[in-house]
Design goal:
about 25% strand, Rossmann fold, four-stranded antiparallel β-sheet, alpha/beta, five-stranded parallel β-sheet
Length: about 220
């Protein structure tokens, strides 16, 4: 998954990027609202982590604009304000969740998972796709009696497909969702990870289909 972190505290931002990257997420960091707007103009995101007090404005104005445009990308607000009225105001503006600074990274990760589950219409980490059981928390696929542990990039790639079965994803779109700007990779990398997932799905009624000249989709056979 690709996240946008809008945070002006360099140390906190660096630690957050490092922690989420360990889980296989791609995290772009913007220190200002202007930088965030530049990122949003060129890249699609699965989740936005938004600080409130920023050098060039109030994060609530970003949130208000974001929701006024009917943008479906979920937003978790990170805030040092702990008053109930502040938290209520943030939620009323359209935040999907909030977390109060200083926060524990395990809690942040859990809130990210919960928000992404709700976005995908799931209430828990384990979902069934055809006859395949996918647990996004443990990073496993259960195909028949076999439980397969996915590597980070395999997990994030399968999450993308599982979030929208029957939707076609181009190689360039998958590349953008899986790798950061700093990583020098080609679209061949996508073919490698698709090949690995297909091997894991052998024996199931679920497959990743190639739509020639367009991309890939997850579907029942």
């Amino acid at each position: 998954m690709r996240f946008l972190l809008i945070e002006d505290n360099h140390d906190l931002a660096s630690a957050t990027v490092d922690r989420l990257s360990l889980d296989g997420h791609v995290v772009d960091h913007a220190a200002t609202l202007e930088e965030a707007a530049d990122f949003r103009a060129t890249t699609d995101y699965d989740l936005i982590l938004l600080d409130i007090m920023l050098p060039d404005g109030d994060g609530r104005s970003f949130l208000n604009t974001h929701r006024s445009a009917n943008d479906p990308v979920p937003v978790i607000v990170t805030t040092a304000r702990s008053e109930v009225s502040d938290r209520v105001g943030i939620l009323d503006l359209g935040a999907d969740d909030y977390i109060t600074k200083p926060f524990d990274f395990s809690e942040l990760e859990a809130r990210c998972r919960a928000v992404l589950r709700r976005k995908g219409g799931a209430s828990r980490n384990v979902i069934m796709i055809g006859d395949v059981e996918f647990d996004s928390l443990s990073g496993t696929l259960k195909v028949g009696p076999n439980k397969i542990t996915l590597r980070n990039r395999e997990l994030r790639l399968f999450e993308i497909f599982a979030s929208a079965p029957e939707q076609i994803f181009s190689k360039s779109k998958l590349l953008d969702r899986l790798f950061s700007y700093d990583e020098d990779v080609s679209e061949n990398a996508i073919e490698v990870y698709i090949g690995r997932l297909r091997k894991h799905l052998l024996g199931s009624r679920v497959e990743i289909k190639t739509v020639r000249g367009v991309g890939y989709l997850l579907a029942n056979k």
